[in-house]
Fold:
Amino acid sequence: MLILECPCCGVKGEETEFHGGGEAHIKRFGPGSSEEEFHDYLFAKENPRGVHFERWRHVNGCGKWFHVARCTRTLEVFGSYSAQTTEPPQEIRDAITARRPGWRWREFS
Amino acid sequence: MSTRLAFGGRRIDRTKPVEFRFNGKRLKGFAGDTLASALLANDQVMVGRSFKYHRPRGIVASGAEEPNALFNMGQGGRFEPNQRATTTELFDGLSVTSQNHWPSLEFDVGAINNHLARFFPAGFYYKTFMFPRFAWKHVYEPIVRQSAGLGRAPKDRDADRYEHFYAFFDVVVIGGGVAGLQAARAAGAAGAKVLVMEQTADWGGRAMVDGGTVDGQPVAEFVSESLAALEAMENVTLRTRMMGAGVYDHGYLLGYERLRDHSPDAPGPRHRLWRIRADRIVTATGAIERPLSFAGNDVPGVMLASAVRDYIVDYGVSPGDRVVVVTNNDDAYRTAIAVRQAGLAVPVILDARLGGGGALAEEATKLGIRVETGMGVARVHGARRVEGVSVCAQAGEGAVLERIACDVVAMSGGWSPVVHLWSHCGGKLVWDEAEAHFRPDGDKPPLGADGAGFVVPAGAANGALSLGAGLADADAAGRRAARDLGLKPARSAAPEVGDAPEAPIEPVWLMPQGASAGLRMKAWLDYQNDVKVSDVQLAAREGYESVEHTKRYTTLGMATDQGKLSNINGLAILSDALGRPIPQTGTTTFRPPYTPISMGAIAGEARGETFQPLRRTPMHDWHEAQGAHWEPVGQWRRPYCYPRGEESHAAAVAREIMATRESLGLLDASTLGKLIVKGPDAGRFMDMLYTNMMSTLKPGRCRYGLMCSENGFLIDDGVVARIDDQTFLCHTTTGGAERIHAHMEEWLQTEWWDWQVYVANVTEQFAQIGVVGPKARKVLEKLTEDDLSADGFAFMAWKDVTFGEIGARVFRISFSGELSFEIAVPASHGRALWDKLLAAGQEFGVTPYGTEALHVMRAEKGFIMIGDETDGTVIPQDLGLDWAISKKKDDYLGKRAQARSHMSDPNRWKLVGLETVDGSVIPDGAYAVAEGTNANGQRNVQGRVTSSYFSPTLGRGIAMGLVLHGPDRMGEVIEFPGTDGKTYSAKIVDPVFYDKDGEKQNV
Amino acid sequence: MRRYSAFAVAREATRYHQGWARAWRSPEPKKKYDVIIVGAGGHGLATAFYLGRNFGITNVAILEKGWLGGGNTGRNTTIIRSNYLQDPSAAIYEKSRSLYETMSQDLNYNVMYSPRGVLMLAQTEAEVRGYKRTAHANALQGVDTEFVSPERVKQLVPIISLDGPRYPVLGGLWQARAGTGRHDAVAWGYARACSDMGMDIIQQCEVTGIRQDGGKVVGVDTTKGAIDCDKLGVVVAGHSGVLAEMAGFRLPIESVALQALVSEPIKPCMDIVVMANTVHGYMSQSDKGEMVIGGGADGYNNYTQRGSFHHIEETVRALVETFPMISRLKMLRQWGGIVDMTGDRSPILSKTPVENVFFNCGWGTGGFKATPGSGWGFAELVAKGYSPLCEAFGLDRFREGRFVDESVAAGVAH
Structure:
């Protein structure tokens, strides 16, 4: 039973207030993209046993989407941040580094 | 024999006799008794039968760890199997029967298994019952099933109710023994908001029985003083009869409060499930005594030493006149002393340790009790109750030195901290060599959301078994919990306790240590599931080496007590058999709940009508009053049809359709999703959402649109109305409203967040009524002055119209093929307009129609229905909807996906109409067969039915389906085998069956 | 191998069962094998077994990081059914179900396959249509199912409440020859049979690297040293992503927790398996007498083998509504397993970008029932490079948009 904090409304809420939306920071590929790009965009998922970045929606709250950095092995939450960004902000990365030195996720570390 | 003593019994009130029934016999106990103590007081030593061998079983323990004393309890809607006698408080009228025997507890046919036990070792069923093949299902398994199971199945609906409760605390202390109270005091004094829960009805835990002095006063006084102090703190909540059932991630804790189990007739819910969030959880859950493994240790009358003294001290009950104590540690001497102080006999204390005990042993000796060191039990005599023990040297193989008559054997194999709650969420354990038990590894606690440990073990649950050590540990735990919260606890004020020096425990996993195979087959580990030392050794011999293998192969620890008594002993036997140290073997996983909790409590209040929230349209009550046949659609209920009197559903549907086609029908369309998309970039956004070009739609006009997922599949459809330059109103399917709203928000917020668009779901703000049929305009004209003429209000337009005092937005759209107006009004006016329409429509024979008539009419017109023609694998191109896919747009959701090879494959099945040759109705979901079979031997198919109805309008069956190259095969007849044994031949036709040119809707 | 029989048990009884041999050997790895299977769960062991049985390939090692059968094989709710909608699914699950029928005899290990019947309740009109469609499809696929009336539902499972106020039962899809099996025994039975064929089951041996030469697999590195092989079959469920990364590609998989629970045991009251998808719960009664209950999966990536309690709550609430008598039973134990969800919720049995490396994964919530069929097909794929059973489950399908989507029958509301 996770507790997550919605960065939009500032509420720290029960997992039941939120809805998970899968991997974060995925770049959309539309018409004109290659078969490989489009396949990877939809299906090649990060599935780490450890640090993970994902999307959540405060569905039974303010309704806003946001990002969460979380450990899938311990369920530790490193922080949540705006959905309107293409990469994790530095302070989130620092928070992860403090707990998981040497972490890597896709091109981020 | 076991009986009530003339004096003593700290928990019972001898002035309040209580009558109860056991297997039909009327028995008497006192208020404050547990069912177990009352049974023992009535000399009911044998209380049940074991699971596999149906051996006689007696009460072993006095608490939650009891594996044997389980009963069918109560009657009718209050019947409940497997009630544990040791945790069941006695009340007047309580009625129980014993379980797992036939015809009676005393004479049980199933006990034949006991005589054949040798043929039924661990896992014998994996090696047998294989021939002949059908026999497992038809012969062996039914026998196994009948003889397994414990209590009877309840038959009736539960007469009680249950509730859920949310709570938030800084610190929750689980366990109201001295350790829990001390930890709570420390945390509470520091200012933390604290909850203390105790699973029994009493505070103080074991210390109340075991005694001792704290700060120079008797421990009982320390307990009352602590309670008084806690009660005086406003930030502390105390709860008895509440168990910490499970610890989950991020400090989520389940508290299971049994409000009425002890007085079932009192008002209110029976159980309350507390769903607690705690910053810190202190587990002051104590420890559980371990049995010793010797031959015959399962005979009724063999009990945990601590339980024997509990029954004497707490309930004034003597489990027997002559109590042999057998132990490997000092604690059991307390039992010998208590027995003697109650005036009963202790023929001998068998201490397996060569060196014997410490101060308590001296005290026992002073009382004149015979103590034999280095000795153990070779075997217990008696079948239905203990008659005596044979004594042997612990170091030997079981040669009998002496036989001693007794009726109780009080055994103690040491104490295991209750680490369940620590472990539920991943807390790790360490093996404490000196104390011979697993205890929490403080360095590897369960981690909270912040990565810090959130469970703090305290007292005996942390391996600090003595009173003094336990209190000091608990005090530190309480202060630590407070400190973790950023509070400043007072400096240590741990109470002073003069613990008597104890001699160390010596692990004894088998008694005697060299016991022969014959003895090991009689030495029980798991009493309920009938797992013996020999079974675990057999598992090890056969290669079931992991502790999980052994558990599953032997069923050790899988009974209703979940191995509270058996796990550690079994683990030690396994480790020994494998020649591995115990910590290397490890434990099985501790899973919630700590002891079983009722399904009723888990389900809570949500039952029957309140099972899920019910969404009602403004016309809901009218539908109900008309006797509508409901169809659940999501959390809505929609009228399927409105049968009149004895009318069948099919007849009602036909009547509703004919009335609509001929004159006037009314549809409550309020459940349709209504989403507003607004903003300077609304057009651009709409163009991405829909396959159609929506940005070119003119204000005042409507357009039918399709939405696809990014994966290309059709997910929803509906009519879009452009309200003004920056505003669109999107109609979705009933089931789609929330889903599509979320879909829009997701793309807006996570992909195109710089676009200036807002989306609002206004589904419930509006009632929507379909006024349908040739008389639709006529009836509306009775209610308004506004121009609704064909010229003044074109098909696929919308306009604001006033019906008397009700302002409405009217859409000239049709899903039935008839002249049709969909009228949206604020929800609060919905019923009023509905009533007006009914009244005004009377002269036209106005007929409300339900979802089925809606479905049939749209199928007659060849309109697709999301969920019928689509199933998540269908793309718009499959449905001949290419006209709704804009070729001018560079992009829309799903466009790239639809370019993939399989999606542009000309062999995809395409939508057609299907007309049975004989006019019958093709079964819904039937497949069209093709020649031959595929590589896996399955019949080849070339299409399937997506919708199929009897059309009252056409007087024949009509269907739509997806067929290979369908549109190119008009007129061809293909075959659909039904599951009814018939084959349906159907001609491929145009999917529009009725009014192909759309003249009726366009008048 | 010593044959298991009642006679053998009786003979051993006379000598306190001291004479039983190990069910499987516990050897040290050899330098090289023809085929290495990574993962000694049910699917991995079944693959090895059919490699030997059907293709005569017995120079096989099965490497297991922990203990054999220690993953989802021993954590599921033991349901075996094949009433799937899509042809490829029905083919592999029906193959599987038919292999279960004779598995006890084939393995000489009683896996207690009990064809007690599986009933899927239809509680909405959409479900009625979906299940009728499935029944039609099944008839052509050689899967014996039928759509039954509410009255028949009540006969099959008398403890059910047909006319709950919210979701009355409108019928059900009934597969009489579906049922349950003893999950652990499946792994143990295959392990014993593999060991008997001379295959090496190496437990406590973790694969740490996949060695390639020119785009072709040549062996694996393990915690017990390097082992060579000609072909590599990876069947590691929740760790597929890790192994794929070693091989240098990504999978369309996300791992989430799926939970289940059992009640305390009671005398028989329910002979069949009932699944209620509208309200999200399913239940059967084990031979021990426990009501075995499962529900939906958690919605976020998770490797803890623990789930969120609200899912347990939802499941129990659904089943108390469907079977009111269970309200007074008690939950004895709840647990979680990690299931791999693919992009279309169907499994992957596929060649990979690395030559002679094959992956079998992504079984989601349906793995146990598929065990023998998966092993049968995957063994063929590994041995011959092609298997009709696996054909539709290749990795390519995600590129081509050629999904095998089973969520279809559930339908969508209107």
Remarks:
- Strands of chain A lie at 3-5, 12-14, 19-23, 51-57, 65-71, 77-82.
- The interface with chain C takes residues 1-2, 15-16, 19-20, 22-23, 35-36, 39-40, 42-49, 52, 54, 70, 72-75 of chain A (CB under 8 Å).
- The domain at 17-26+36-99 of chain A is CATH 3.30.2270.10 (Folate-binding fold).
